[in-house]
User: Fold Glucose-6-phosphate 1-dehydrogenase from Yimella lutea.
Amino acid sequence: MTTKQTTKSVTFLILGAGGDLTQRLLLPGLGSLLAVESDREVQVIGADRADLTTASFRALVRDRLKKGGADAKTAGRIAGKAHYIKADLLDPSALADLVQAAEGELVVYFALPPAISMKVCAQLEKLDLPASTRLGLEKPFGADEKSARQFNKQLQRVVDEDRIFRVDHFLGVSTVLNLIGMRFANRMLQPIWNAEHIERVEILYDEDLALEGRAGYYDQAGALRDMLQSHLLQILAIFAMEPIASLDPQELADLKAQVLRATHIWENNPKEYAQRARYTAGSINGRSVPSYVKEKGVESSRNTETLAQLTVQIDNNRWAGVPFVLRSGKAMGAPRKQVIVYFRDVPHLPKGFIGDHTGDAMIIDLKPGRVSFKLSMNAEGDPLDLEQKTLSADLAGAQMTAYGEVLRYLMDDNQLLSVRADSAELCWKIVAPAIKAFEQNLVPIQQYKAGSDGPEGWLADDSVAIGQESAELTSTSNKGRTARTTTARPAKG
Ligand SMILES: O=P(O)(O)OC[C@H]1O[C@@H](O)[C@H](O)[C@@H](O)[C@@H]1O
Assistant:
């Protein structure tokens, strides 16, 4: 892929520069961007209450940029002109000083808890910001539809919507963007991308990570808000949208919003459309994991789920009647990050053939990237005996991290990868009935052992089989990046 070099100089003002997000994701993300585009002119200004100095911040920037992949010279160049300003971010005069320090275009990135971001925004509103100012923000964008709307209004009082970048780093994952390219560049996929040919779609993101010391945030959120409401609905919107004419940010945002407006939970009984569970003590690849409720900072009476599954439908001409299953869990034994498209059975199998001809599917592994097709074909031996075979190709690794990708678009003032205000609000609207059902305990909270695949019976047998096969393929996928075929395992049960 060719990469665009830019000479635009940007000041990247990180509010909350002393925090975990800056160190773990933002600076390494910037490092991975600089690894590809080393000429970028970025002045990093960190601001926080934390007791850092410009010298210690520069050391941190250098280290994290290198961790992200930037070469030593580039990391040194960017770190050498970085600054740290100890400031109370709720103090308007401190904010004014920060803005004054900016050179070139200004990107203000909120690496702050949402409630503080909202208050800082109220202060920013009073300042005379440079015309080029862009705001970058992390999820959650509000806590429900109403607060998301208020937050959006607050942001739009600071700058116009076309300068607000709501970051969902999944939109920077190369395999997610590839959903658009693959679907619209392949003649064979276009006619079958609808309810006439597709029976069910699953969007799964099971992680082997557990809480990782994030109780302060996660115990208030849970898997439904943390993953399904945001990342997985964004994937669904991209997967299901109508054909796009060009990668125009407004057009993409319009098409995503169109899908999200038509998306609703599957039916009225919460037990039919939602499931939740949390992990108990167990071990993942030899690492022992305490029970979720024993983790520091967890309030067990909150009943926070660490695994959630939700079935939604898209009430439009293309997708009516097709269940879309969204699921994500923590502390799972086998990481499973897939979009699975299950095809309907053929209308007629020529008489005389025997064997298995059902369960054809397309599997898009998001991480590591791979696309597989499960197809019915003639097996060894009897030519009339059909069997399910998997044809699979690994996708080359991304050139930069997902954060690097979203930062690139943010620095370039291109909103293609950002979440527009209406989408942020719609995503809350879609999950609202499930959140309510969880809060009212209408959906029992189940348990699963850390390191397991979650409670039995949540996913259909064919999905369980695909998961097992995928885990096997993943364990061998680094040996080569060529297409291969394997014989699928028989479905469980
Ligand atoms: O797999 P990635 O890119 O780290 O993204 C998953 C993470 O995404 C974050 O947005 C969630 O808050 C985390 O809980 C989750 O682990």
About this structure: Residues 169, 207, 209, 226, 402 surround 6-O-phosphono-beta-D-glucopyranose (CB under 6 Å).
